[in-house]
Amino acid sequence: xxxxxxxxxxxxxxxxxxxxxxxxxxxxxxxxxxxxxxxxxxxxxxxxxxxxxxxxxxxxxxxxxxxxxxxxxxxxxxxxxxxxxxxxxxxxxxxxxxxxxxxxxxxxxxxxxxxxxxxxxxxxxxxxxxxxxxxxxxxxxxxxxxxxxxxxxxxxxxxxxxxxxxxxxxxxxxxxxxxxxxxxxxxxxxxxxxxxxxxxxxxxxxxxxxxxxxxxxxxxxxxxxxxxxxxxxxxxxxxxxxxxxxxxxxxxxxxxxxxxxxxxxxxxxxxxxxxxxxxxxxxxxxxxxxxxxxxxxxxxxxxxxxxxxxxxxxxxxxxxxxxxxxxxxxxxxxxxxxxxxxxxxxxxxxxxxxxxxxxxxxxxxxxxxxxxxxxxxxxxxxxxxxxxxxxxxxxxxxxxxxxxxxxxx
Length: 409
Ligand code: ADP
Ligand code: ASP
Ligand code: MG
Fold this sequence. Notes:
Blueprint: E1 2-8, H1 16-31, E2 34-40, H2 46-57, H3 63-70, H4 72-87, E3 92-95, H5 97-100, E4 102-104, E5 113-116, H6 119-126, E6 130-134, E7 137-139, E8 145-147, H7 153-164, E9 168-173, E10 194-196, H8 197-205, H9 213-221, E11 226-230, E12 238-241, H10 243-249, E13 257-261, E14 264-273, H11 278-288, E15 293-300, E16 305-313, H12 317-331, E17 335-339, E18 342-348, H13 358-368, E19 375-379, E20 382-388, H14 392-402
Parallel strand pairs: 1-2, 1-9, 2-6, 3-6, 9-11, 10-12
Antiparallel strand pairs: 4-5, 7-8, 11-12, 13-18, 14-16, 14-17, 15-16, 18-20, 19-20
């Protein structure tokens, strides 16, 4: 007897018909002799709708109340899905995150799971129930409801699979696996049979929203076999596993995928004195304002002064700009400028470790399309560039073609 944890995303439970279809699908697996734990998201659009209601009442609503509101979306789908099982003659029981006792820290809207009590779920499984759990939510040590950040139901699924030692965690969504890049941007993108935890982690943190970053972190840490599959078509999907196992399944490609992030903005301060501590004086106030800095670039000019450029989340652009202007006054800088119409495009692949010249090939493919690179950053298994947002589609497609990603790798 195997234990499967399956997570169904918003589109997969987006209507009554689709919830009924999920029930049928889960029963199919159950009839093959598997114990089933099902994690669901809110119906598609519901979390956005709730967030917009809060925005109308109070744009600065506190995190605790926002979480009380946002978690209701998932409470609806767990109840409806459980009813669909009952109607078909299967015992089912729904749980909110708090009822399971998924304990998190108290960072509302972006809480981290600390522990999971699997006693209730195990008891229900033992007595033949299908267990249905609300994704994206938990409870802190004071009993406050928390949420895990957008896309957090993936993390609930993987964390439950780890806690219950499930045989596999299956993420059912509206695409039939992880692709070489977002198929909405590159229709020629190809489904990967498998991808390593490490590469998936890079893809997720560089902007591929197919899996929440923390879900991949959990899966890697606890070695949970993780698979992304379609809710709507049959198929084997994409297995996310160790690099070693990926090698067994498919030939290693130089580049596994292309990720992009539209949420970036760039800020520059020109003509500051090049003295020790200058980076701290510029970035200290940014970090004090709770703004995360992504890429950083510093240039020293011939006259000995320095220019400093960095990127932040687009939502933080105005606040960061205001803070930088203040710093510029105190440092007597020449000027401050910014651009919130930029994007980051990244190539990811463990194959880069053993092959030189990948970055220059990337620059060549972009140059051929006349795409100007504003910033570059590299690490062991990725190269990222910042470009004007108007080049996003063109850039992704040029790289996809250049690195031959359409071909079976
Ligand atoms: P769910 O609501 O099921 O959680 P999401 O919208 O969060 O679904 O994630 C699925 C979407 O992720 C797909 O529709 C696709 O547009 C997007 N996506 C981005 N990058 C990739 C990729 N590399 N492979 C597959 N899908 C991707
Ligand atoms: N409903 C939440 C969201 O839209 C969580 C999730 O779907 O994973 O972000
Ligand atoms: Mg998602």
